[in-house]
Amino acid sequence: MPTDEDGDVIMTDASEAAGEAETSKETPADAESSPMHEGAAASDEGPPPEERVIQAEASKEEGNVLLKAGDSKAAVAKYAEGITSVEPLLEKDPGELGEELQRRATVAYQALRLNSAQACIKCEDWLATIEHAEKVLVIDKDNTKALYRRGLASSMMNTEGRLEQARADFARVATLEPANREVRDQLAKTKDRLKDLRAEEKQRLSAVMSGGLYKDHHAKLGKQQAGYEAEVFRRKEAEEDEISFDDWMKREKDKVEDAKKKQKEAEEKKRDAEQERVLKETHEQELSRRREAGEEEISFEAWMDLQKAKENERRRSLIGGVVRTDMADLDADERKLLEETKSKGYYHGRLGTVLSDAAPKPQQVQAGELAQAQNGQVGSEWNQAGTWEEKDQTSWVKERLTAWLQQAMVSSQVNLPSGSSATATAKVTKVKSLTGDAQLVWVRKQAKHGYNFEADLSFNLSFGDGKENSFSGSLSIPELVDTVQPSELRVDVRWKGSGPSSEFLPLAGEWMEKLRESVRFQVSAFRDEYLQRR
Q: How many whole angstroms separate alpha carbon 19 and alpha carbon 164?
């Protein structure tokens, strides 16, 4: 594995990410503080510049010791102390600090960021890894260590957007370091995963086309909420442990799955037994016929083989003596569509029909220009013929989804650990990123509302008016897609800085769960609005 002049591991996979710590010598500075594991950058007040640099260098060395010892979380915290000390100096003019002190501050800052990214990989904190690496890339866009670590973290987040980022990062490193075999291996793996993910997305869209995914979903959500509240009340009356909505939903889902599995097994067992009974009765009838006719008896296995041969012969005769797999594999709906397309006369590759001048001609549909057909149905002439139209909804969905998510908020009176009463408020303050796409697809004159996003939100949680009881951080929704019900959305919480104290942590956890539920409710409201769009 390649190393730099100080013996530092340049490239590594997630299982070896502890490696050696950074002591790299790299260039100018980034003025923006990280939102992850370090606190806000210190103001001009505090230690003098040279002391800040000395503190940062010491934090780097102490963090390196912790990282080598395998205590990655402690290493991240120690590196954060150094970042907080040195980051304000990067905003100053070199003439104010002196070139040598400015150089030392820059070197320490970049090493701290890169080492933090490496330690976060060991902690499997992929978003933090990406943010630390990006701080370095703002300064040096071709820093191979930062590119590789951002690519590695992105490759661990199984979404198309993140995998695309990983592919681009690994490709850039491979260009900069053509002899690096490890990065070429990672690039090949990432391309394969992207291919698989896109194939899965195609299957998911096909499932959406089959319909029925959204029927009565809002009523179902209300029923689930009522069931959860009843369980909360029962547990409180019975003095049992509390249960979160996510845990309750998981238990209910497990119950339903177990019941379905048992029912399916029972039905299959019953069907198999009935089929075997009928076959054996038919075989007995055949044996009786053979005895009466003086023919040789036949075993059950040989008779079954004979029946299969007869069925194959029957299928050949139905299709002109040749078994055409494209026809034989069609289901009832596809056969019906084939008959419709034959009557209209236009070409369909798989089904083998022929192009006709009388067939409707395809028309490109622009956003906001779906034609209103004369018969009152929405869609172009192509769609009225029973085929396909796809309309990009990405811009509209981003705008509306952002508006709904920014309304997520919960607030009420609570008793603080000190015994006093205060107003608790948890709210989404900003939609930091919303990446993905959305399509409104018409197939067989039915509208299918598809979307696939991942979102990062900023939040604030406060107890009363004082800043000492106010906390902030990020909410991550990795799979904000149409196939996942809002009640089942995964919403991850990351605190900025050290987060709430141990005294406030239980109360903060309770209120973050409330905010998660508010976010899920807003997504449900967005889906209701989206489903009305035509």
A: 26
Contact status, residue 457 vs residue 475, Cβ threshold 8 Å: yes
Would you say the C-alpha torsion 192, 197, 202, 207 has a positive or negative sign? positive
**Mean pLDDT across the chain, nearest whole number?**
77
Residue 321 has what DSSP assignment?
Answer: T
Residue 164, exposed/middle/buried by CB under 10 A (0-12, 13-18, 19+)?
middle
Identity of the residue numbered 365: V
CB within 8 Å of 59: residues ≥ 6 apart: 78, 79, 81, 82, 85, 112
Length of the chain: 534
Measured CA to CA, the distance from residue 324 to residue 347 in angstroms comes to 18
**In angstroms, rounded to a whole number, what is the distance separating the alpha carbons of residues 459 and 161?**
23
| 406 within 8 A of 430, measured Cβ to Cβ | yes
Q: Write out the DSSP string of 346-411.
A: ---TTTT----TTSPPP----TT---B-TTS-BS-HHHHTT-EEEEE-HHHHHHHHHHHHTT-EEE
Compute the Cα dihedral for 265, 267, 272, 274 and give only its sign: positive
Instruction: Decide: helix, strand or coil at residue 247.
Output: helix
pLDDT tens digit sequence for 470-484:
889 999 999 898 888
Residues 450, 447: Cα–Cα separation, whole Å: 10
**Closest to 422 measured CA to CA, from 462, 376, 381:** 462
Q: Are 520 and 408 a contacting pair, CB within 8 Å?
A: no
What does 47-109 look like in DSSP terms, one character per residue?
S-HHHHHHHHHHHHHHHHHHHHTT-HHHHHHHHHHHHHHHGGGGGS-HHHH-HHHHHHHHHHH
Distance of alpha carbon 278 from alpha carbon 405, whole angstroms: 59
Q: Residue 382 pLDDT > 50, yes or no? A: no
- Answer whether residue 297 shows pLDDT above 70: yes
- For residues 380 and 386, give the distance between their C-alpha atoms in angstroms, rounded to a whole number: 10
For the four alpha carbons of 40, 41, 44 and 49, in that order, the dihedral sign comes to positive
